[in-house]
Amino acid sequence: MLRSLYSGVSGMKNFQTELDTIGNNIANVNTYGYKKGRVTFKDAISQTLVSATPGTSAQQVGLGSQIGSIDTVDTSGSPESTGRPLDFAITGDGYFRVRDGNDTYYTRAGNFYFDNNRRLVNSEGFAVLGTNGQAITLKANVKSFSVATDGTISDQDGNTIGIISIATFQNPAGLTKAGGNLYTTANSNAGQVTVSQPGVSQPGQKGAGTIKSGYLEMSNVDLSEELTNMIVAERGFQANTRIITTSDEILQELVNLKR
What is d(CA 32, CA 176) in angstroms, rounded to the nearest whole number? Predict the structure, then answer.
């Protein structure tokens, strides 16, 4: 069979993956703390027709393309004012830490709440962790509170209720998406700052960003960019289908030679 037939198939598969990624980005254009994905391609193995000799270059024919990587673009989104005291946005590097049982997750979505046990939790009910590694809990006598840029939560008398912790990573793009605006560590190379636990810092210290109360970080998806990429991917997909159609026509001509 023609090599171009299989090259076209590989191109279609890859552009389909890119379209899937673009579609997911567009679907999350209004998701707080969302980090967009990006697909990169690389060429597949090449078939050598004539090996290189002194003074003569090799003759090679490529056999299509393949997915090089699907990256998470870890750039900050714009902060949006909400006026809600329990909405937090991180200005700078780092992630909030939340815990579900023995599992710790990381997130940039700072829409938090107080549950029935007066614990600070995210929308999934996971406890937001302080710098001491414990859940931040309001005492029964607390009637009001305030949040400083360094993550310190204080009651109406100025007493410290807890300090929100920030985790930073040498390779934040290596975090694995777990759904629900949450990430887990996989290839993130551990944190680069240390306070009470590896990779954990008080906001504004040792490379960690500060906290803005009353704001939420928007998605870093640029809709105009995604729509442009979608057009390019669509045309790439169509071009590869044309390769398959043309290869099929050539094969049809070869079959007709028998007549």
Answer: 17
